[in-house]
Amino acid sequence: MKKRYFLAMSTLSIAVVAGCGDTAEPVEGTKDEASLTLQQVYEKAMERQQNLKSVHAETTMDQVTNLKMDSETMQLTSSSNLAMDIEQNPMAMYTKGTIDMDMGGEKFEMPMEMYMTEEDGFYMLNGETNEWIKLPDEQYEQIMAQAGAQANSTEQLEQLQQFIDEFTFEQDDENYLLTLNIQGDEFKQFILSQMGASLGESMDMSGDILENMKFEDSQYNIVVAKDTFDTKEIDLDLKIITNIEGQETTIESDVNVIYSKFDEVDTIKIPDEVLKEATIAE
């Protein structure tokens, strides 16, 4: 169950043009043009996220992995739809949704429901037995970091700030539209580090994986509200191809997070029945 959970939740949490001093290019039909620069918008978005108390996130992820060796091919697919309520300080999260997976012909649908609070720890519903389990306390921080990274736009913005010179910068009447085309060795390092963080493992940044990795048609999109500087949406389209010792692996991911209810999420508390009924995971 835990292996399936990690596989389902691990996304690859992630041009060229406008400099930081340029204002946003209006898209067709834009009437209300703003004059802030990319650097100013990014700083205001970061400041807003750092002061955000709570948010709701609707996340979807579709991923297809093709493994080719000699004449054989194996395909793994997953599709998830998760709704998350998130509090920042203290960190707390409630997640509910479904994950569909096909692992080489073995198909299954897994309901997903989780509570996480700093006071009580991490609780997850076992979709196979419909029973609640509590993760051991020593693993709480690791799981909180992994799950939180899926929907925390503050961390996303901080991590992507190093590439700010590579963003295209546009605007419509209501939003600033930031687009990053993924290419080059610096993105390989970044994405591998994100994969390692997501899986709770260290990954070799200079070995065969890095040397034999390439991107195709990969893009990071961020939508920031003009009036509040809230990050309204983050979308990642990613295609990674590696070829190591004759084994070719292609991973295609489409991850979308839409944020709402800024500072409007109710206090997250784990129900008493969950606390009482849960068994400790081994």
From TrEMBL:
* One Pfam assignment: DUF6612
The cross-references to InterPro entries, in alphabetical order and at most eight, read: DUF6612 (IPR046720)
- Record carries keyword Methyltransferase: no
Residues of the signal sequence?
Answer: 1-18
Q: Which UniProt keywords apply?
A: Signal
Q: Does the keyword Lipoprotein apply?
A: no
Q: What is this protein called?
A: Lipoprotein
